[in-house]
Amino acid sequence: METFDKIKPIFLAGVLSAILALAGCGQQSSGKGPPAPGGPPEVGVVVVTPEAVTLTTELSGRTAPRLIAEVRPQVGGIIQQRLFTEGSDVQAGQLLYQIDPALYRSELAGAKAALARAEANVAPVRLREERYAELVKINAVSRQDFDDTQAALKQAEAEIEAARAALETARINLDYTSVKAPISGRIGRSSVTTGALVTASQAEPLAAIQQLDAMYVDVTQSTAELLRLKRNLASGLLQDGGDAQTRVTLLLEDNTPYPLDGVLKFSEVTVDQGTGSVTLRAVFPNPRHLLLPGMFVRAIVTEGMSSQAILVPQRGVTRNPAGNAMVMVVGAEEKVEPRVIKVVQTVGDSWLVSEGLQAGDRVILEGIQRARPGTVVKAVPFGAKPEAAPAAAK
To answer: Which CATH number characterizes residue 328's domain?
Structure first.
């Protein structure tokens, strides 16, 4: 027991020394403080700069010949000859089919005879009318006889006019037996062969001729897009190009560009109730006949120009919970500010902005996850290499 009492003060003194030593180490360690921060986070920004842009819209459609004529017979009969090669170019007035003319020749001969008979019949009536005109003055014939003679003369003269009209009709019908090309162009396949019976104004055409030197391209545009374009022009966001005719370019079915430009010629004034769209028609030169009727194409139509367009890369634009487009900008005191904007349409990989931004604004494109609203950041040009970290002190 005495031994324990002697050891106890020594033990307590050792424990107290250890506690003091640990406390001293803690104070020395805490005296250094936390490591110094690395400064505000860097964000990549792009400075808004107005620029001149030409806005276009891409519309799909199909080609159509500028002129097309369906060849139909105007008289009936048997086809004696087909006088063209299918798929060849024909000229206006060229003979295409020959219908058997025998019946129409006989009708022409009969019409000539009827005219000659009518002319022969009118001669004695005219002489009698001339004699009665003198006799009635001296009451040698009655007034009634003179009136009857005048009426007979007029009837004979009318029969001559009717015979002449019949003769002209017979001549026209005989000419119609030679079926000719109404326009110049390329003729397609023939629906009849030699020996076929055709009738006047039949429903099925004998062939079709199409002019391919110039082609129509008919495209459709929704009324919503048309109204948007008109609003942009009215507000001054876009200006009309000032050309008398809007230029149009063309992409073919294999995505290759058509080498020649066209012009917009026509815009339908009635909206298709089934599709809610209007039809636009452009004309393209087609000297090499590269465009064929019925081809699917995409037309790029120039909408207008903006000399002070505000463009923002799409990667910098997000949507808020309300669905509105917004961007993060570096504002006063280098703090991040959210900015709601109004976008019109895409231009390449950018948005065309009509409201919410102005020249000189710095839009954050990179480091948005670190750009909390109100956070102080260090703005660097987008795409610039980050600064190298300082070497650690040895």
So the answer is: 2.40.420.20
